[in-house]
Amino acid sequence: MERCIGCHSCSLACARLVHKHLSWDTAGIRIASSGGLSTGFEARTCLACNPAPCALACPTGAYSQRQGGGVIVKKNLCIRCGRCAEACPVDAIYLDATAEPFVCIHCGRCVPFCPHDCLEMAKTAGEPGEREGAQEVAS
Amino acid sequence: MIRDHFRVLVVDLATGRGSVVSVEGRDAVAGGSGLAAMLFAKYGRADKPWDDPAQPLIFTIGPLTGYFPLMSKTVCAFKSPYHDHYAESHAGGRSALSLRFADLDGLVIIGRAEKPSCVVVGSRRLEVREAHYLWGMDLQTTGKTLRRMFPGSGHRSILRIGPAGEQGSAMACINVDTNRHFGRLGAGAVMGAKRLKGIVILGDGIFPLPETKEYPKLFQEVYRKLTDTDMMDKYHNLGTPINVAVLNGIRALPIRNLQQTSDDATDGITGERFADDTLLRHMACAGCPVGCIHVGFVREKFMEPNQYLYRQVPYDHEPIFAVGSMLGMTDAFKVLALIDAVDKQGLDVMSAGVALAWATEALEKGILSENETLVPLKFGDEQTYRQAMQHLATGANEFYRLLGQGTMKAAAYYGGTEFACVLGQEMGGYATGEVFFVSQALGFRHSHLDSSGYSYDQKHTDKNVGDAVGFLVRDERERVFLTSMVACLFARGVYSEAVLADCLRSVGYSTLAENIAAVSNSIQKLRWKTRLATGFDPRAVTIPKRFTEITTWKGKVDEGYLAALKEEYARRILEMGREDQG
């Protein structure tokens, strides 16, 4: 992420392609300046915790542990309680005004939109040759 | 948000209240430049001076802002302290996307705050907050303080002025998100006159995507074109500073107050030299994958032993020419130090550099003395220029206060008009020849971006007045639609009329898509009509003698051709801005 130029193309792509929104918030990866523009940028995105604190905090099973880290999201089970976002240690889950949560699902659709190669898909350790879904976005 | 009208927030600083106004006219004026002119007609007063509290400070975006890449600029419109006419200045940063996500097509600020204040707007927020403690702060400190006052890192835009804007300098800019500027024609003074130190725009809205099948496909295609073409190389690699060596090579780089157009010593300030020695990193406006912002650094020893501070400084061709070659600076780090010194004060770096270049020559010639300049201005002397920049920004004496109102105003008073490098305002960094000189002197923004006259000069050796002026008018008409979208003009090679029509159609603006040519034409006329109504007379514009004394790759500037171009362009402008025109 030291290469990031702050164009927000990744966030906009995630919101557009995954969540069908025009937004730089409802995205699994969000870019913020790290203490003003003069110090560069940081990405707020899921670090693929295992066990994932957000999944442990979710009271309805909307968030469940994903093999290799991160979460599987079932939106129809979500009651908008916001506990997942509270539990995330790195502020990777965005809650909109209705408390609907948005988190990275490690699909990699943002990766081609980064013009500076900040993002890449990486195999999850311990799962060689797993299906594509077992990959994650590293930043 | 896609809508058939404009959603405009009008904020009155006198009352601290605002109102959301629906303005009709999407299919007639599109947005951006067109919307700004329409809003000036609604809220502006052509007959009142620029600093009348009732005058609006207008910010607008376009129908494609946020929906497509490089639709990343904002138009700022106001009555200019420089010439008291209607004016536009454009900037990027995060301002355009922040306005989009604040769900505003336009933001209009009227009135004057009782005490120095700042404004914060968002999709669910409006606040005018008294902030007297910000008054007098430089731009960087103001930015840092506003960031602390209004959290929301990354998804907001912070506009602010420095001391130059507070004291009403016609060269005061509005800084946008540290590295970008509404630079020219004194927008910063308009904020200052309103006692408005900062504007924070929170981009906190979320919208559904257009539901057409075409939109996602078209986005992908446009994105690919913008990132696959040579744009990435042209604007991202060395960026606009590549022009320094190119222009120097064709004897078209303004040097030492345009006393020369080529000098081997400028090797020290080429784009290549900046990249090799000073470039720290690139940055981008929000929504633009090109990332044309080049950030270098200055390092200063402030105390012995070995006590240093450093700052990051954005650079481009225009600042490099203005405080580099125009001031006889041949060291890239010294140029960055000057850009930094000017920026801190909230001055437009182009105007400030060109103004001090004139003052230096005037001092050399004995027209000015150190009683006026306070410091012994000398080409190549960075330390002296740093002090002079501060004098200019703060209006340290009568001379600097007058110079801050425009180089030609100071020259008219003290003498030396013939070598004041003013083309409507202080010149841009292209001494390419007659067509550019006329295009900037008479152009709507007095900018090299109004139309590519500088490019025409480089491609044509003939002297056909009708062809050249026809080109300027046509090129401006095409650009005015782009600045109504509001696209970055770097994307003009990709956003052809056909591509723009597809983009507009894909998000639901079919009528606009079908009428681009007619709408461009009417926006162009509307802008000129607005400009003329506030007092602009293109026939009264003069081009100082210095511009006819230089030699470029084409040879000596042809005074007869220059005069004929000026007369014809003035005629076309008056025709476009006639009251009975659309």
Descriptive report:
The complex is a heterodimer of chains A (139) and B (582). Chain A is built from three helices and nine strands. Chain A has 139 residues and is of the alpha+beta class. Chain A has a single domain, classed as 2-Layer Sandwich (Alpha-Beta Plaits), CATH 3.30.70. In chain A, the strands form four sheets. A two-stranded antiparallel ribbon of chain A has the order 2-3. Chain A has a two-stranded antiparallel sheet with strand order 4-5. The longest helix of chain A has 9 residues, at 9-17. The relative contact order of chain A is 0.21. The model of chain B has no long low-confidence stretch (mean pLDDT 96). Chain B has three domains: 6-202, Aldehyde ferredoxin oxidoreductase, N-terminal domain (Aldehyde Ferredoxin Oxidoreductase,  A, domain 1, 4-Layer Sandwich); 229-425, Aldehyde Ferredoxin Oxidoreductase Protein, subunit A, domain 2; 430-541 and 551-576, no CATH class. Chain B has a six-stranded mixed sheet. In chain B, strands 8-7-12-9-10-11 form a six-stranded mixed sheet. Chain B has a three-stranded antiparallel sheet with strand order 14-15-16. Chain B is globular and about 65 Å long. In chain B, helix 12 packs parallel to helix 15 (382-394), helix 20 (465-485) crosses helix 23 (516-533) and helix 20 (465-485) packs across helix 25. Chain B contains 25 helices and 20 strands. The chains are: A alpha+beta (139), B alpha+beta (582). Chain A binds chain B through residues 5-9, 12, 15-17, 20-26, 30-38, 40-41, 96-97, 113, 115-116, and chain B through 66-67, 69, 97, 100-101, 124, 143-144, 147, 153-155, 177-179, 203-209, 216, 219, 223, 227, 232, 236, 281-291, 293, 311-312. Strand 1 (21-22) of chain A pairs antiparallel with strand 13 (207-208) of chain B.
